[in-house]
Write a structure and sequence with these properties.
This protein has 22 helices and 24 strands. The chain is of the alpha/beta class and 585 residues long. The strands form five sheets. The protein has an eight-stranded mixed β-sheet, with helices on both faces. A six-stranded antiparallel β-sheet has the order 1-24-23-20-21-22. The chain is globular, with a radius of gyration of 25 Å.
Length: 585
């Protein structure tokens, strides 16, 4: 489970109200995006991106495509017809099922997620049992859930009558659920994530001169919207002055419906993003599996040392993978990618790939802390020189947004120091050793769980953690301690670890000098670290004004780290799309 960074001084007694805090966002995912359970991971990715921006998410979900019709047909085959008070409670099982699966997908990538059923959510509506209208909402249960979790996934479409019976909000009612919750939480906008291209001034399927709105007023939306947003939801949004951001999942375009209206314009044609992957191990293979199932992505190449070696890419066949494989960086760049995702396990090879891509003006996201920490300043300069961008959030903390947390903390006050647990493999092994397992057994379990590489020496010798300390120091202070100046304790079969021991990393600025260390520590320590379980990572940032920011979460494993790399990809893609729209690319 991961926790959103929380300011420790002054310590909030509860989650701030949405009217004064930008940290809550309501996102609605319809059945055009949640077509089947296989789509839950991509919804989790959208949610993860918002959490990484420092927000907590209320995700309102529809049933999977066709599920509502199937449930209705089953019920009516038994004689349950319209206005039957039992029917709605049966039908909303579709939304509650998709909510549970989306929450599970969020948990897999390290997000702290909870679901609320229709009854637990407590949205009250009155009127026809299949077309009721919301009248009130007690936000207390939802706020309590948000205090403890980054993501709360709730079913749309269903509500409770004033008498406590389950009712439905009409077809498209998940839109209404999301808008009513956002309004009651005091938000100014809500995201409706769909597969449509936005609001047009005429039907783009039959008229080649159709133009797309970036901002549409209420009148245009009601006249042209059709099935874009439920009409009752639009009426509610206008009455509550709530902006409705209809976001296209495929290319990220948003039509914002609200008081503002801007004349529509010609929509630029969209093409899939060309992505290359360097490395096909634990992280690279997991990332590749996600990319291959994403219609927005065209995977153009995968760099590996030995193309003849079988690859562990869940859901992909050797026939699908083999044409993508290349063994030389030049061959990968020759396939003309827009973005390179670098997930190699070797520092030299990874550094060479990053430089080769940046020299060609290709954006890069890296999960290779050894490669990036070698010279981040010069890599950033090379990127700027060639009009490219370099991101490395995935190289630190797995699924924990440590880089984003530190950057946000730095904007409030200068950083004095940080402490962290940065290696999920070592933390996992120390916990198992503390429970009585031998060193070899703990290492075998870490490998089996997908935390440890075949060669775990960088983890066990503290080199992995030291590289992450250097990168975090670069983010915190604009410079790094030399690696040889960071003392490291080694975890080995010859060195016993005390019960409760942790690999604790520290870095502080003292009289203008950076002092860092990677130590195996037992005994009293901050509860943030003492209570961290398994592969968990955690970061404590101390600012010069005495305030503290913390974050923790799943710091190792295929899916958590792959998700962070995909979030970097999403950020790079969004930047490219913005340049394209404004004519800079």
């Amino acid at each position: 489970m991961s926790d959103l960074a929380v300011l420790e001084r002054p310590k909030p007694e509860s989650l701030p109200g949405a009217a004064t805090s930008p940290q809550i966002v309501v996102m609605k995912f319809g059945s055009s995006v949640l077509v089947s359970p296989a789509d839950a991971p991509k919804v989790a990715s959208d949610i993860y991106a918002e959490v990484r921006r420092g927000r907590r998410v209320v995700a309102v979900v529809s049933a999977f495509a066709g599920e509502t019709d199937r449930l209705l047909a089953e019920a009516r085959a038994l004689g349950l017809v319209h206005d039957n008070s039992i029917l709605p409670s049966y039908v909303v099982q579709g939304e509650e099922r998709s909510a549970a699966l989306v929450a599970l997908a969020c948990d897999r990538v390290g997000l702290g997620a909870q679901t609320l059923t229709v009854r637990e959510l407590g949205l009250v509506a009155q009127g026809d049992s299949e077309h009721a209208r919301p009248i009130r909402f007690d936000p207390a249960p939802l706020r309590r859930a948000l205090e403890q979790h980054e993501v709360v996934v709730v079913p749309g479409y269903g509500a409770l009558s004033p008498e406590g019976k389950v009712v439905l909000l009409g077809r498209g009612g998940s839109d209404l659920s999301a808008l009513f919750l956002a309004a009651e939480l005091g938000l100014s906008s809500v995201q409706l994530v769909k597969d449509v291209d936005g609001l047009y001034d005429r039907d783009p399927n039959t008229n080649i001169d159709a133009r797309r709105y970036d901002y549409a007023g209420w009148a245009e939306a009601k006249a042209l919207g059709g099935g874009l947003v439920q009409p009752d939801a639009l009426d509610l949004a206008q009455a509550r002055n709530l902006n409705v951001e209809v976001r296209n999942y495929l290319d990220g375009h948003r039509t914002v419906i609200g008081a503002r209206s801007v004349p529509p314009r010609v929509a630029l044609p969209h093409r899939p993003l060309r992505v290359a992957v360097a490395g096909c191990g634990v992280v690279g293979g997991g990332t590749l599996a996600r990319l291959l199932e994403d219609p927005r992505i065209d995977v153009v190449g995968v760099l590996v040392r030995n193309p003849a070696k079988p690859r562990d890419v869940p859901g992909a066949s050797p026939r699908q993978i083999r044409p993508l494989l290349v063994s030389e960086p030049a061959a990968l760049m020759a396939r003309d990618p827009d973005i390179v995702l670098e997930a190699l396990s070797e520092a030299d090879a990874g550094h060479a790939v990053i430089r080769a891509a940046l020299e060609r003006g290709i954006d890069v996201a890296s999960a290779n802390k050894q490669a990036v920490s070698r010279d981040p300043a010069s890599l950033l300069a090379l990127a700027e020189q060639n009009g490219a961008r370099l991101l490395w959030s995935a190289s630190i903390g797995g699924g924990v947004p440590m880089v984003e947390t530190l950057r946000a903390a730095r904007t409030k006050a200068p950083i004095a120091a940080f402490e962290a647990i940065l290696n999920g493999t070592v933390n996992f092994m120390l916990e198992r050793i503390g429970d009585g397992a031998s060193f070899d057994a703990a290492l075998s379990e870490a490998r089996a769980a997908g935390f440890a590489e075949e060669d775990p020496s960088a983890d066990l010798e503290g080199l992995d953690a030291a590289a992450k300390v250097r990168l975090l120091a670069f983010e915190a202070f604009g410079r790094m301690p030399d690696q040889e100046d960071i003392p490291r304790d080694v975890l080995s079969a010859d060195r016993s670890a005390a019960a409760g021991a942790r690999q604790l990393c520290r870095c502080r600025l003292e009289e203008g000098k950076l002092i860092a260390e990677v130590r195996l520590v037992a005994g009293p320590m901050d509860a943030l670290f003492a209570t961290l379980k398994g592969e968990g990572n955690a970061l404590k940032v101390i600012r010069k004004d005495g305030s503290v920011v913390r974050c923790k979460g799943r710091g190792a494993g295929r899916w958590a780290t792959a998700e962070s790399l995909l979030a970097d990809l999403s950020e790079l893609a969004g930047h490219r799309a913005g340049e394209r729209i404004t004519g800079h690319a």
